[in-house]
Amino acid sequence: MKDVIILAIESSCDESACAIVKNGKEILSNVVATQIEVHEKFGGVLPEVASRLHVEKISAVIEEAVEKANMSVDDVDAIAYTRGPGLIGSLHVGVQAAKTLAWAYKKPLIPIHHIKAHIFANNLITDLKFPLISLVVSGGHSEIVYMKDADSYDILGQTQDDAIGEAYDKVARVLDLGYPGGPKIDNLAKGIEPQYTLPKPKTEGTYDLSFSGLKSGVLQFVDRMKRKGEEVEPAILAASFQDTALSEVMDKLMLAVDDYPVNQVLLAGGVAANSELRKRMEAAFANRKEEIVLPPLWCCTDNAAMVAVAGYFAYKQQAFGTFEQSAKPSLRV
Ligand code: KG4
Ligand code: ZN
């Protein structure tokens, strides 16, 4: 079969990214310009600043990706882009860039769902073996997804309130650790006993998740300790929060895996980079028949290579978009 080369653009949050990928597997280039240093100063992503920085960076990022792949946009088969979900202003920049390229070079456009792209990122390191279950844990999403094949997408369970990454970032802010909080809590909690008692989410008996009670539980705990004049030990609080959040995630994932026979269980999204989550996955599946896929850190966080892989699967289905489609911040699958 003829090679399929996809150029993809991602700009849903605070990374401006462009990648060129062959056959959904071989990365020819993968450029990510992160805005983290700017948002760090504010303790979180400022949407208005994010979109302005995307406007400044996107052309150079695309140019670099094309140069690194040592080709012309003429040589690619389609232009894939993240249509949503994400920040509206940020998404717009990537959508417009993709449309401009598709128009100028007469290429088909492929709109991609950001969360699907996180799942498809795993195809860069292994072959996806359907049916599969993916635990999607990021700054904007917490979902347990069942995929019978590459085109189907069933959300078995999802967060009823905040995303897990959001909770990590919030707790990190309470502890004054900086943004993004996930990796900071991950490091701080390493090897520490979770000794503080925090409220457990009340989602028993479903595959759904919840993190807002835990998030406010942390705030209340810190307040209570202050009022009593007692010191909060940041590392113990980080470990206690992480233990409660990850127990919730693992309990629900195992419930789903027991009910749905699958070949693979994949992690996806920024929180998949978490070292404790990866440890718990390995322990939970050590004696089970399902293969687990723990993507390397570079393919957990936002990038455009994952959008190109999802674009490749969509290309095979001829699932092309139109120039009338615009960014959709709350795009459903
Ligand atoms: O997927 P992603 O890059 O962006 C979204 O689509 O949301 O995920 C970003 C989230 C942030 O909340 C960040 O704190 C979290 O992933 N994160 C982590 C780790 N690395 C990134 N959370 C826990 N442990 C980590 N090591
Ligand atoms: Zn993401």
From TrEMBL:
<feature type="binding site">
    <location>
        <position position="182"/>
    </location>
    <ligand>
        <name>substrate</name>
    </ligand>
</feature>
<protein>
    <recommendedName>
        <fullName>tRNA N6-adenosine threonylcarbamoyltransferase</fullName>
        <ecNumber>2.3.1.234</ecNumber>
    </recommendedName>
</protein>
<keyword id="KW-0819">tRNA processing</keyword>
<dbReference type="InterPro" id="IPR017860">
    <property type="entry name" value="Peptidase_M22_CS"/>
</dbReference>
<feature type="domain" description="Gcp-like">
    <location>
        <begin position="26"/>
        <end position="308"/>
    </location>
</feature>
<feature type="binding site">
    <location>
        <position position="169"/>
    </location>
    <ligand>
        <name>substrate</name>
    </ligand>
</feature>
<feature type="binding site">
    <location>
        <position position="114"/>
    </location>
    <ligand>
        <name>Fe cation</name>
    </ligand>
</feature>
<feature type="binding site">
    <location>
        <position position="302"/>
    </location>
    <ligand>
        <name>Fe cation</name>
    </ligand>
</feature>
<dbReference type="InterPro" id="IPR017861">
    <property type="entry name" value="KAE1/TsaD"/>
</dbReference>
<dbReference type="GO" id="GO:0061711">
    <property type="term" value="F:tRNA N(6)-L-threonylcarbamoyladenine synthase activity"/>
</dbReference>
<feature type="binding site">
    <location>
        <position position="274"/>
    </location>
    <ligand>
        <name>substrate</name>
    </ligand>
</feature>
<comment type="similarity">
    <text>Belongs to the KAE1 / TsaD family.</text>
</comment>
<keyword id="KW-0808">Transferase</keyword>
<dbReference type="InterPro" id="IPR043129">
    <property type="entry name" value="ATPase_NBD"/>
</dbReference>
<keyword id="KW-0012">Acyltransferase</keyword>
<keyword id="KW-0408">Iron</keyword>
<feature type="binding site">
    <location>
        <position position="118"/>
    </location>
    <ligand>
        <name>Fe cation</name>
    </ligand>
</feature>
<keyword id="KW-0479">Metal-binding</keyword>
<comment type="function">
    <text>Required for the formation of a threonylcarbamoyl group on adenosine at position 37 (t(6)A37) in tRNAs that read codons beginning with adenine. Is involved in the transfer of the threonylcarbamoyl moiety of threonylcarbamoyl-AMP (TC-AMP) to the N6 group of A37, together with TsaE and TsaB. TsaD likely plays a direct catalytic role in this reaction.</text>
</comment>
<dbReference type="Pfam" id="PF00814">
    <property type="entry name" value="TsaD"/>
</dbReference>
<feature type="binding site">
    <location>
        <begin position="136"/>
        <end position="140"/>
    </location>
    <ligand>
        <name>substrate</name>
    </ligand>
</feature>
<dbReference type="InterPro" id="IPR000905">
    <property type="entry name" value="Gcp-like_dom"/>
</dbReference>
<keyword id="KW-0963">Cytoplasm</keyword>
<dbReference type="InterPro" id="IPR022450">
    <property type="entry name" value="TsaD"/>
</dbReference>
<feature type="binding site">
    <location>
        <position position="186"/>
    </location>
    <ligand>
        <name>substrate</name>
    </ligand>
</feature>
